[in-house]
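User: Can you model how 2-acetamido-2-deoxy-beta-D-glucopyranose sits in this protein?
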Amino acid sequence: MVRLMILMLLGAVIMTMVPLGVGIRDDQTREAVAKWFEKVGNEKPKLSRLHFYLQFNFTGNNASVVLVAQPNITSPTGFGEVYVFDGLLTKKPEVNSKAVGRAQGIFAYTSREENAFTEVANYVFTRGEYKGSTLQLIGYGTSEEQILEFSVVGGTGALRLARGTAFLGTLFIDADRETIEVDIFFFQY
Ligand SMILES: *[C@@H]1O[C@H](CO)[C@@H](O)[C@H](O)[C@H]1NC(C)=O
Ligand SMILES: *[C@@H]1O[C@H](CO)[C@@H](O)[C@H](O)[C@H]1NC(C)=O
Ligand SMILES: *[C@@H]1O[C@H](CO)[C@@H](O)[C@H](O)[C@H]1NC(C)=O
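Assistant: Here's the modeled complex, given as structure tokens:
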């Protein structure tokens, strides 16, 4: 325990001494961000739309959805199971079409009565006008629903303060993989 504390103290000292290099950018300083908020406070947000596809692998070492925890009870609704995912966002429905980003998040079966889950996700864009920006989604879904409706609760970078609604519908699914169509309507500044 003592050794651990010494290590942690040492870590803290090293952390404060080692220059980290980059720091925050000019457009992320308190002044710049305050100015940005002031500006958008007087602006009407504009409606935008993003449309792409989300690809998941279920099997092998390239699985992009994994079960990370489950309870020690047997539940017909999967209650208590927790999954982590890192899916590829593509421009077209084909798995090998151009990648525009990744959808990374967690979902868990959160109902004891039905096959329902709660999901939180970051959509991280790696190409195009939103490269380097993210959207944050929160949603509730059941296995009964054909189209899921999630909330876009925020964004970062060029998508800062984004707010909207995302629709997700499965285009293809088998034991190995799934392709989901994603259509997002959102307000942005
Ligand atoms: C996983 O995917 C990567 C690239 O997408 C590929 O190079 C690798 O061979 C794949 N591994 C398996 C086990 O399929
Ligand atoms: C699950 O684990 C808890 C805590 O260890 C224990 O009290 C409970 O009896 C277990 N339930 C079952 C169904 O094994
Ligand atoms: C799924 O697996 C294939 C083949 O292993 C790989 O090329 C592809 O990149 C994987 N897709 C995702 C979304 O991880």
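A couple of observations from the model: The longest strand covers residues 46-57. Residues 2-17 form the longest helix (16 residues).
User: Helpful, thanks.
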